[in-house]
Amino acid sequence: MSRLADVFDSSTTAAVGIFLVGLLLWAAGGWAVVANDDVYPPLVKLALLSTAFAIQLTAQQRPALAFGLMVALLAGDLAVSPSLPLWIALADVIFLAVSKGSDRLGVVVVWFSLILTLGGALLAAALLDVRVGLYAALAGVALTWSPLGYARAVRASRRMARMEREAARAQLAVLDAERSAALGDERRRLARDLHDTVAGHLSAVAILSEVAQKEPGNTTVLRSIRAGSLAALEEMRATIDLLTSPDDTAVTTRLSSLDGLIDAAKAAGAAVAVHRAEGLELPTAVEAVITRILGEAIANATKHAPGAPLDIDLRRDRTRLVITASNPIEPGARTGEGNGVRNMMFRAESMDGSLTADAEDGIWRVCARIPLGAA
């Protein structure tokens, strides 16, 4: 709105300035283009100046109409005696018509300026002499082509500014989309870590609480409940630290953190066996990922197959680490790809690895293959 107001004010100022110039030319005896050809009485001059001023104001909102009226006014004036103030006003109307009007109006103005400049020069050369024809051509360039060129430059500048605004809006839209995607990724990351850490311990605590209700004097179960609760709190602190880190590998997670889940599974009646190849050294990032995978596998086994033996095997297959967790399941037991399985797959794929989880011959088996050289 402020830019439109600025343009309006500048256009009005130009119209007022041309009106004042016309009055000065009138007072100085320079009204007529051709010397000693001033035939208009004062009232007609005032009417012509006022009409030109009104046309200039009209050109700010309706440039096509104003250009047509100005051409008609000049045609009548030319038939009687060309008036210099009107031709000066024409320059302002041409500028407004090209800068504010449509592309079609701009083409019309270009052809008008071309015909007027060439026609006036040729006519003056034919009726008078070549020198007058040259002066007429220069006057045509000054009064028509100069404002026309300036108006086209202004129009191009506006078009460039509009393109820049559109590009800025498009860039903002991309940034908004990226921000929304980042927020979504962060929410999924938070849900994944809460599920893989805290939820596993709390699930084990819930199972052990059922055992404690059946065996009130079993102190081993009570100790496991307490250990599981403390482990859940510790995992919650680790998750909070994780949210402030750039990626999952920034938080060091060791296989030793699985001891609480293994103890809870044993307290629930399961026999957990962990087989780790001798001399197997694990990079920190790989160990963090397989800890999360095995933690989910132990929690699922404790929840869905309580009391069933769980066998965990870690071995090296050339450049890959192969992790297998298997436990028997009852016929008709619920299987499928819940959040836990999807999270395990995500963990493995984040290290350029793979993971499968399915039931075969009454055995639920989770098998992950992760490159040891993964970063």
From TrEMBL:
GO terms for cellular component: membrane. The chain crosses the membrane at residues 12-35, 65-98, 105-128, 134-153. It catalyses: ATP + protein L-histidine = ADP + protein N-phospho-L-histidine. GO terms for molecular function: ATP binding; phosphorelay sensor kinase activity; protein dimerization activity. Keywords: ATP-binding, Coiled coil, Kinase, Membrane, Nucleotide-binding, Phosphoprotein, Transferase, Transmembrane, Transmembrane helix, Two-component regulatory system. InterPro entries: HATPase_C_sf, Sensor_HK_TwoCompSys, Sig_transdc_His_kin_sub3_dim/P. This is histidine kinase. It comes from Nocardia mangyaensis. The lineage of its organism: Bacteria, Bacillati, Actinomycetota, Actinomycetes, Mycobacteriales.
